[in-house]
Amino acid sequence: MWKRGLIVLMLGVAACQSSPASTPVAPTASPSPTPMALAARVNGAPIPLAEFERRLAAYEQEWRRNGLDPQSAEGRQRLAALPRQILEGMIEEVLIEQHAARMGITVSPEEVEAALAQLIQESGGVEAFRQRLAALGMTEEEFRRNQRAAMLAQKVFQQLTADLPEVAEQVHARHIQVSQEDLARQLLARLQQGEDFIELARRYSEDAATRELGGDLGWFARGTLAVPELEEAAFATPPGQVTWVATPRGYHLLWVVEKDPARPLSEDQRELLRQRRIQAQLQAWRAEAQVEILIPLGP
């Protein structure tokens, strides 16, 4: 196809060169291009409004297909929050693109095509794949751009987390969580009198995830516990001791059972550390970026 286009172009040039001279015609001014409507700018890079609207519509359609009732209270709430979530995701994509260039990370067209071929095969063939795109209101070119963005993000994230350790200092601890300070003090006094920590945790702890386990938090490394204040106290407390910790979740009686200075990290722990490092980096990039949101997004 491109050869035919090139031949047509060459014939057109030859015809112009061999035609007789004609009276010059004054050039006409070309019309000014219509400015592209934007949803946002990220360090000067545009996010087109049309692309944002297509992605928003595709997500809404997918949610409805998966059973979300737009008339329910949950449906209204989730749909109202969706525009901001979509735009923030697109802003992150631009930030990743910009920082990938600084990190020397690229995705070649061949990599995108190989991934696309795999997805087409998994979808049941070209026709089934195109039907899926049509249902989402997405063109193949848009899908390629999205696929490239996802592959680029994966490479960036791999580089950001390449130095995560295989082993780390870890603590094994149990806790009793209550919402009333007086009850926490009473339980501490009972523990000091020799009552069993595990039995008190099963009876009084308000942490449903660990209550039946006698308050067992398992082994955890720094940066993996959901309550940072509890994690900090655990690493600061010697093994065998019970300490008192106040956190936004309530009052905790924390028993540090044992410690290991170099315990292998589980895959779940490593994944959690990966996710938290990536999120922290994205937040840092977002904080230092010049971001202009040009459309109303609601709550």
Can you write the helix and strand succession as a string?
HEEHHHHHEHHEHEEHE
Number of helices, counting only DSSP H or I runs of 4 residues or more: 10
Q: Could you give the distance between the termini?
A: 50 Å
Q: Which segments are poorly predicted (pLDDT under 50) over 5 or more consecutive residues?
A: 1-28
Note the beta-strand portion. Answer: 15-25%
Based on CA atoms alone, the radius of gyration comes out at 29 Å
Order of strands across the main sheet:
4-3-6-5
- Portion in helices: 40-55%
Largest sheet: 4 strands, antiparallel
Overall mean pLDDT = 87
Report the principal-axis shape: elongated
**Structural class label:** alpha+beta
Number of E-state strands: 7
Polypeptide structure, described:
By secondary structure, the chain is α+β, with helices and mostly antiparallel strands. The protein has 10 helices and 7 strands. The protein has a 4-stranded antiparallel sheet. Strands 2-1-7 form a 3-stranded antiparallel sheet. β5 and β6 form a beta hairpin. α3 crosses α6. The radius of gyration is 29 Å and the shape is elongated. It starts with a helix and ends in a 6-residue tail after the last strand. The N terminus is likely disordered.
